[in-house]
Specification:
The complex is a heterodimer of chains A (438) and B (470).
Chain A lengths: L4 H17 L4 E17 L2 E19 L2 E7 L4 H17 L31 H15 L5 E19 L4 E2 L2 E14 L4 E10 L8 H13 L10 E7 L1 H14 L2 H6 L19 E3 L22 E5 L2 E2 L6 H7 L13 E3 L6 H6 L3 E9 L9 E12 L2 E14 H6 L1 E3 L9 E2 L3 E9 L2
Parallel strand pairs in A: 8-13, 12-17
Antiparallel strand pairs in A: 1-2, 1-4, 2-3, 4-5, 4-6, 6-7, 8-18, 9-10, 9-12, 10-11, 13-14, 14-15, 15-18, 16-18
Chain B lengths: L11 H12 L4 E17 L2 E19 L2 E7 L4 H14 L30 H18 L3 E18 L5 E19 L2 E11 L3 H5 L4 H16 L6 E8 L6 H8 L4 H5 L20 E4 L20 E6 L2 E2 L6 H6 L8 E2 L8 E2 L3 E4 L6 H6 L3 E13 L5 E13 L2 E6 L3 E5 H4 L3 E4 L4 E2 L4 E5 L2 E9 L2 E9 L4
Parallel strand pairs in B: 7-14, 13-21
Antiparallel strand pairs in B: 1-2, 1-4, 2-3, 4-5, 5-6, 7-22, 8-9, 8-13, 9-10, 11-12, 14-15, 15-16, 15-17, 17-22, 18-22, 19-21, 20-21
Helix pairs in contact in B: 1-2, 3-5
Chain lengths: 438, 470
C-alpha cells in the first residue's frame, strides 16, 4: 500500500537536516510514493496486468543565491548521504542567480483544507476484469468494430513537501481511470477512436457500458472519410480539442515564458486578448477535482483566479523565481494551473452547429503545431463536415491553421461545460481559420 | 558495471531462484534491473538556471503466457519486494501452461564504449561552455533576445536475468547538447533550434570549438524564419532535404511497421507484406548497429543483439520490427527491436535508427523539376495515427519553390499525408543520404526512447501543406 505521511515526513526532515549540516543555507524537499495497478483487455481477453510502486525524492539546496537539485528513486539513507553531499557540492560550484529563493514565508499555505481527493476503496483485479468485460461487450456490439483495447487503472499517491522555512505538508490522492480504444473497418478505411473516464472516487467513474458504447459509436462514424478542398471555413472544436487551446493559453501566460520574453502574450496584462464574452477561471478548491490542490509545488497557497475577465487578461501564472524576476508576487502557480476552465457561453451546442451554413467539426488533431513565441498554429485534423447544423460526412487528411492572436478574438463558446479533465472547455466555435486539403 | 545485489538483503542466487520459480510455466519473461545516472545543466536568460542530477534504480519483473503479459516494477531491490512482484505475476497468470523459450542469440559486437559521460567533463567546464555559447550568440547578432543552451548526459546500466540464471548486460552512455536562440526584429520574434548528440563523451561532439557550429546553425535558422512569409495551403510538390527531415520516414512508415500493431491488425500496413508500398528505388532499413549513434544498441531491452533490419526493399515491404513477444505470436524471430524507456515500462517493438538509403538523383535536379511547391530543410517533430495511416510533421525551416528555383522562406507549417501511399509519391531519391545530428526522441504509449533517422533528399509529388495562404 502507499506509504504513510509519517514515513515521508521522516525522510524529508532527514534530508533537510543533512543538507543544513553540509552547508546549505536553505533547502526544500519533496518525497513521493505512488502505487498503481492496471489491467488491460484486448478483444475481450486479458492482455496485460501491471503493478507499479514508485518512490521518489527530489531535493533543492541553496547556498545564498546559488542553487542546485538532485532527484532519486533510491531512498536508502546511504544513497541519500551521497546525493545530498553531491548536491551541496554542485551548489557551491553553480553561479549565483539573484532571483533564486524559497517562497515568501507569508505566502506559504497554512492548514490544508480537505478537498476530498482520496478514496480509500481498493478495487481488486477481478473487479477490474469484470468492468472491462462489460465495457468490451458494449464496445464490440457492432460488427464493424474489429479491435477493442481497454484499460482500468487504480492509482494511490501520497507526498510530503517540506522546506527550511518550516513548511511541511502533504496529502493522499487517488484516481480511478478507465479507457476504451476501438478500431472500426469498412471496405474503404480503418479508423480508431476512444473514450475515457477518470475520477478521484471509484463510485463516480462512468458506467462501463456507456464508455464502451461511446468509443464504438465515435469510431464507426469516422469510417470512409473524405478529403475536402482548401478554404477559409468556420471551425468547431469538440470539447476534448477545445481544452488543448486553453492549455496553449496557459503555457503562453506562464511567468517563465513571460519573463524570458518568449510568449506572444507578453505585456498583454489588462489588454483584451479574447472576445468580450470570454471568462477564464483557475479554481484549485473544487471538491474531488482532478486538478485540485491546497498549495503549489513550492508550498505557496493557491486561490481561485479569474485569469480572463470579459476578454481581458488579468493574471499571469506566477512562481517564486519568475515572480522575483518580474517583481510580482507568486500566485501559487508553480507547476502550472489547477482546475482551469472557460466559463460557459450562452448558446446551446445545437445553436453553435447552426451558426454557420457550413462548418468543420474537429474531433482530433495531430502534431505539435502550437508556437507560443509567435502564436502560429498549424496541425493535422480529423472531423466532420457540418451543413445546416447536421453532421454530413467524416473528413480527414487536412490541416487547420491560424494565429492565436486572431483565433482568441474569434471564439464563441457553447453552454455545455463539464468537468471531465483538469482543464475543461465548452464546445468552441472559431471563425476565420484556414483549412488545407486537396 | 552495476552490482545490483551489493546493498540488498537479496542475493543473486535467491533472485535467480525466484525468477525461475515464477517463470516455470510461462512462455517468456525476465527480471530487468536498471541503474541510471543523469544530469541536466541549463543556461537560460543569461544565467545557469538549472544544475540537477538524477539517480534512478529499480527493477521490472515480467512474465508472459500466450498473449498475456504480467508486469510489476519497484524501486526497492529487496527480498520482500521481488517476492511481492512474483506473487503479482503468478496471480495474473494462474492458469499458465507454456514452456519457457530459452533461446537468445549471442553476439560479441559492441556499438559504444563503457563510459560515464557525466564524469568525463567537470561541472565548471560545462558551465564555461554554456556561458561561452551565450556570449558568442549575443555578440554575433544584435537581434538575439534569448539564448537557451543545455547539456543532458546519462549513463544507464542494465542487467537482464532470465529463467535458469542466464544473464545479459549493457552499459549505455548518451549525451545531448542543444542550443535555442530567439531573435526579435521590428516587433517580430522567431526562434531557431539545433543540437548534437549520441552515445559518446561530450567532447567527441564539442572539441575544437565545435559548439560554435551548433550555435551558428541555430542562429541561421532563426534568421531565415525572421524573413519568412505565410506558408501556402493545399496540395503541392515537396522536396525534403537530407538528414533530419527523415522524421517523415519515421512517422509515415516506421510506426506502422512495428510488430505489435501488425499482430493486432491495427496498422494500416498489416496486410501489405510482400506488396509494393513505395516507389521503385526506395529502400528503408532500421539499423541498431551504427557506432555511437543515438538510436544504436548493443543489445535491446530483452537481451537480443540488435541488427540492421530491411523494412522496405526497392519499394516492396519485407519485414516488420519485432520484440520477442510479437515475434513468437507471429511465428518469426525478434529483430532486436524490444525497447523500453526504463524499468517502469513494459517492452514494446520500437525503432532504432530508421534510414532511407541513397538513390541516384541530385537535390538540384529535384528543385529544378518543380514548378510550384516547397523545399523543407528542418523539422520540429511529427505524429502518426497508425490505424488511419495519416501522419504529420512540422517544418521549422522551409522555402517556396517557384519555376524550379528556391524562393522566399516560409513560416513553419504542418505537412500531412497518408503513410501507406506517400512513399508511392516519391518520384526522385537523392544521392546525398545523411544522418540526423543525434537529437531525436520517439514517443509511443507514454514511453520516450532515443532514436535516429537518416535519408537523402527526396521529391514527393503530392502532399498537403498546412499553411494559411490560400
Amino acid at each position: 500500500m502507499v506509504k504513510e505521511q509519517e514515513f515521508l515526513e521522516k525522510k524529508a526532515s532527514y534530508c533537510l537536516d543533512l543538507a543544513k549540516k553540509l552547508g546549505a543555507t536553505d533547502s526544500s524537499v519533496v518525497v513521493k510514493n505512488s502505487v498503481s495497478e492496471t489491467v488491460n483487455f484486448r478483444n475481450k481477453k486479458l492482455d496485460e496486468s501491471n503493478r507499479s510502486d514508485d518512490l521518489g525524492i527530489s531535493i533543492t539546496t541553496y547556498i545564498g543565491k546559488k542553487k542546485s537539485s538532485i532527484s532519486s528513486s533510491n531512498l536508502l539513507n546511504d544513497n541519500l548521504n551521497i546525493l545530498i553531499e553531491k548536491c551541496v557540492e554542485t551548489t557551491k560550484n553553480t553561479p549565483e542567480d539573484e532571483f533564486n529563493s524559497l517562497p515568501d514565508k507569508d505566502l506559504l499555505a497554512k492548514k490544508a483544507k480537505d478537498l476530498d481527493l482520496y478514496d480509500n476503496t481498493h478495487i481488486e483485479n477481478d473487479q477490474k476484469i469484470s468492468y472491462l468485460k462489460k465495457l468490451e461487450d458494449a464496445a464490440s456490439h457492432d460488427k464493424k468494430i474489429v479491435n477493442t483495447e481497454s484499460s482500468f487503472t487504480q492509482n494511490k499517491s501520497n507526498f510530503v513537501l517540506a522546506n527550511t522555512e518550516g513548511f511541511c505538508d502533504g496529502y493522499k490522492t487517488s484516481s480511478f481511470t478507465a479507457s476504451s480504444v476501438t478500431v472500426a473497418k469498412d471496405e474503404k478505411s480503418m479508423e480508431r477512436d476512444y473514450e475515457y473516464s477518470s475520477k478521484c472516487f471509484l463510485k463516480d467513474l462512468d458506467d462501463a457500458d456507456e464508455l464502451g458504447k461511446i468509443a464504438a459509436d465515435q469510431t464507426i462514424r469516422k469510417l470512409s472519410p473524405q478529403k475536402i478542398g482548401s478554404e477559409k471555413i468556420a471551425i468547431i472544436f469538440d470539447k476534448r480539442i477545445a481544452k488543448g487551446i486553453l492549455r496553449t493559453f496557459a503555457s503562453a501566460i506562464s511567468s517563465s515564458a513571460i519573463s524570458r520574453g518568449t510568449s506572444f502574450l507578453k505585456d498583454k496584462i489588462n489588454q483584451k486578448i479574447f472576445s468580450d464574452k470570454i471568462n477564464v477561471f483557475d479554481k484549485p478548491d473544487i471538491l474531488k477535482g482532478l486538478g485540485s490542490r491546497n498549495f503549489d509545488s513550492e508550498g505557496v497557497k493557491t486561490d481561485k483566479l479569474k485569469l480572463v475577465d470579459q476578454g481581458i487578461l488579468k493574471h499571469y501564472l506566477i512562481d517564486t523565481y519568475n515572480g522575483n524576476k518580474l517583481n510580482l508576487k507568486s500566485n501559487g502557480r508553480c507547476g502550472g494551473t489547477s482546475n482551469l476552465y472557460f466559463e460557459n457561453g450562452n448558446i446551446s451546442f445545437k445553436d453553435l452547429l447552426n451558426s454557420n451554413l457550413k462548418s468543420l467539426y474537429i474531433t482530433e488533431t495531430i502534431g505539435h503545431g502550437s508556437n507560443i513565441v509567435t502564436g502560429d498554429y498549424s496541425v493535422g485534423a480529423t472531423g466532420f463536415l457540418i451543413e445546416n447544423g447536421e453532421f454530413k460526412y467524416p473528413i480527414n487528411e487536412i490541416t487547420i491553421a491560424g494565429n492565436f492572436k486572431d483565433m482568441f478574438q474569434n471564439i464563441t463558446l457553447a453552454n455545455d461545460l463539464e468537468f471531465k479533465y483538469a482543464t475543461n472547455s465548452p464546445t468552441m466555435l472559431m471563425e476565420g481559420m484556414v483549412v488545407a486539403g486537396k | 558495471m552495476s552490482n545490483f545485489f551489493e546493498k540488498s538483503d537479496l542475493s543473486r542466487n535467491e533472485a535467480e531462484n525466484i525468477i525461475s520459480d515464477t517463470l516455470q510455466k510461462c512462455d517468456d519473461g525476465e527480471l530487468y534491473l536498471e541503474n541510471s545516472k543523469s544530469e541536466t545543466i541549463l543556461l537560460d536568460d543569461n544565467k545557469i538556471k538549472n544544475s540537477s542530477y538524477n539517480s534512478d534504480l529499480g527493477f521490472g519483473f515480467r512474465a508472459i503466457s500466450g498473449e498475456v503479459v504480467a508486469y510489476s516494477h519497484s524501486n526497492e531491490i529487496s527480498k520482500d519486494s521481488l517476492k511481492q512482484s512474483s506473487e503479482n505475476l503468478k496471480s495474473t497468470l494462474k492458469s499458465a501452461k507454456g514452456s519457457y523459450n530459452h533461446e537468445i542469440p549471442k553476439s560479441n559486437k559492441k556499438y559504444y564504449d563503457n563510459i560515464n559521460p557525466i564524469e568525463q567533463k567537470s561541472l565548471n567546464k560545462k558551465i564555461d561552455i554554456l556561458n561561452d555559447v551565450n556570449n558568442y550568440l549575443r555578440s554575433k547578432d544584435g537581434n538575439v533576445k534569448q539564448v537557451t543552451a543545455n547539456f543532458l548526459g546519462e549513463q544507464k546500466s542494465i542487467e537482464i536475468i532470465r529463467s535458469g540464471g542466464e544473464t545479459l548486460s549493457d552499459v549505455r552512455p548518451l549525451i545531448r547538447f542543444n542550443v535555442s536562440v530567439m531573435l526579435e526584429k521590428d516587433g517580430r520574434k522567431e526562434t531557431g533550434v539545433y543540437g548534437v548528440g549520441g552515445r559518446q563523451s561530450y567532447d567527441s561532439y564539442l572539441k575544437d570549438d565545435n559548439w560554435k557550429r551548433v550555435c551558428d546553425e541555430a542562429l541561421r535558422i532563426a534568421k531565415v524564419n525572421l524573413e519568412s512569409k505565410p506558408a501556402p495551403a493545399g496540395e503541392m510538390k515537396v522536396v525534403l532535404g537530407p538528414g533530419w527531415p527523415a522524421i517523415l520516414i519515421h512517422e509515415a512508415v516506421g510506426h506502422g511497421l512495428e510488430g505489435d500493431f501488425n499482430r493486432k491488425k491495427t496498422s494500416a500496413f498489416h496486410n501489405l507484406m510482400g506488396q509494393r508500398v513505395a516507389s521503385e528505388g526506395v529502400t528503408i532499413v532500421d539499423d541498431g548497429t551504427i557506432d555511437n549513434r543515438r538510436g544504436s544498441l548493443t543489445i535491446d531491452d530483452e537481451g537480443t543483439p540488435t541488427e540492421k533490419t530491411v523494412l522496405i526493399e526497392n519499394g516492396i515491404l519485407k519485414n516488420f520490427m519485432q520484440d520477442r513477444l510479437n515475434a513468437r505470436l507471429m511465428n518469426t524471430r525478434s529483430t532486436g527491436s524490444g525497447r523500453r524507456e526504463n524499468y517502469r515500462h513494459i517492452v514494446l517493438p520500437r525503432m532504432r535508427n530508421t534510414m532511407m538509403l541513397s538513390g541516384k538523383q541530385t537535390q538540384d535536379e529535384m528543385i529544378r523539376s518543380v514548378d510550384k511547391g516547397i523545399f523543407a530543410v528542418s523539422f520540429g517533430g511529427g505524429q502518426v495515427d497508425i490505424t488511419s495511416g495519416k501522419f504529420v510533421f512540422n517544418c521549422t525551416e522551409a522555402y517556396e519553390i517557384i519555376d524550379g528555383k528556391i524562393g522566399s522562406p516560409i513560416k513553419g507549417a504542418t505537412l500531412i499525408g497518408d503513410g501507406p501511399s506517400i512513399l508511392k509519391e516519391v518520384s526522385m531519391v537523392g544521392n546525398d543520404m545523411m544522418m540526423d545530428p543525434g537529437i531525436g526522441t520517439c514517443g509511443k504509449a507514454g514511453q520516450g526512447v532515443p532514436v535516429g533517422v537518416a535519408q537523402p533528399s527526396i521529391l514527393i509529388d503530392k502532399m498537403t501543406v498546412g499553411g494559411t495562404k490560400l
